[in-house]
Design goal:
Organism: Rhodopseudomonas faecalis
Structural class: mainly alpha
CATH superfamily of one domain: Aspartate receptor, ligand-binding domain
Number of strands: 0
Strand content: under 5%
Distance between the termini: 137 Å
Keywords: Membrane, Transmembrane, Transmembrane helix
GO cellular component, one term: membrane
Protein name: HAMP domain-containing protein
CATH topology of one domain: Four Helix Bundle (Hemerythrin (Met), subunit A)
Largest sheet: none
Low-confidence stretches: none
């Protein structure tokens, strides 16, 4: 079946197959790149910013706690006022960070933990306000009551706030790790898949190329052999692939016409040689007949000449006899 195809069709099919393989690789590569890009974008726009903001919030909370303790340790009313301004500034920064992070929440579980954290944080701020009030009332002396309230009431709430914040961080760490693993898995699968497709394409392409070259070479060789036979004078060699709708078939048809022309020339030469031989034979026969005729004429001439000589001799004898008879007659008469 493959041998019946034209060289153009074979080469075109091979090129199309390779182009399809390359196109398939391109499509697969683009799909895998899209998946990698999705994972990368997810890491860059969701998990890392969330972890960053959670870290900032945790830092702001730590600063708030330190400022709250400094408020207790500061004895002067003015210094306590300065610490309260610092607490307000830290709280304002934390509120901004909280708003930014809230927009980055991507899962129901993460939102549930955040809302629980927001409630605990609100409770913490309410209790911290009481600590601040007790500390403000103890200006100029050690705020023992405020310290006791901080350690007994506010500290457990602060610990709960930390735990909830850590849970949010763990969720984002897990999501980030999942995206990284997904990207790595996508890369590995794409790499091995592309390598496999490339190897298969190379094997198929090389096999198809060798098959095409061998088929074309065999087709040309099958045409060259009878051509060589014709040059040696053997016009009985058969021309293969005649009538096929391929380049080899076209060459075979042309070679068949050339063979028929050689056969016609050979027959014409043979007929001409036969006619020449017949003319030579006819000439030889005419020459032989001419020579026989000349011999016959020569013999006839010789016979007539001999007869004429004999007749002339006889006439001479007769004349002599006549003269003697006349003389005898004359003698008798006298």
């Amino acid at each position: 079946m493959f041998a019946k195809l034209s060289i153009r069709t074979k080469i075109t099919s091979l090129v199309i197959m390779l182009l399809l393989a390359l196109s398939g690789l391109g499509v697969i590569g683009l799909m895998q790149m899209r998946s990698l890009n999705t994972s990368t974008v997810d890491i860059g726009t969701n998990w890392l910013p969330s972890i960053k903001e959670l870290g900032n919030m945790r830092t702001s909370i730590a600063l708030y706690r330190n400022a709250l303790r400094n408020h207790l340790l500061t004895l002067g009313a003015k210094e306590k006022g300065d610490e309260e301004k610092r607490l307000d500034a830290i709280l304002a920064t934390l509120t901004k960070q909280q708003n930014v992070y809230e927009k980055l929440i991507s899962s129901p579980e993460e939102r549930r933990i955040f809302e629980q954290w927001a409630r605990e944080w609100g409770t913490y701020l309410a209790e911290a306000a009481k600590v601040i009030a007790l500390s403000r009332q103890s200006a100029g002396r050690y705020p023992e009551e405020a310290f006791n309230y901080l350690s007994q009431t506010v500290a457990p709430i602060s610990q709960q706030v930390d735990e909830l914040l850590q849970r949010d961080i763990d969720i984002n760490d897990k999501g980030s790790d999942g995206s990284i693993d997904s990207a790595a898995s996508t890369y590995n699968s794409a790499f091995y898949f592309v390598i496999t497709i490339l190897l298969i394409t190379v094997v198929i392409g090389a096999g198809a190329g060798l098959l095409t070259v061998r088929d074309v070479s065999q087709g040309i060789a099958s045409i060259v052999k009878p051509m060589q036979d014709f040059t040696r004078g053997d016009l009985t060699a058969e021309v293969p692939h005649r009538g096929e709708k391929t380049e080899i078939g076209t060459m075979a048809d042309a070679l068949q016409i050339f063979k028929e022309a050689l056969v016609a020339k050979r027959d014409a030469d043979a007929a001409a040689a036969k006619e020449a031989d017949e003319k030579i034979a006819r000439g030889q026969r005419i020459d032989h007949a001419t020579r026989q005729f000349e011999t016959s004429i020569r013999e006839i001439v010789n016979t007539v000449s001999s007869a004429s000589t004999e007749l002339e001799a006889s006439a001479s004898t007769l004349s002599t006899n006549t003269d003697r008879a006349q003389e005898l007659t004359t003698s008798v008469a006298a």
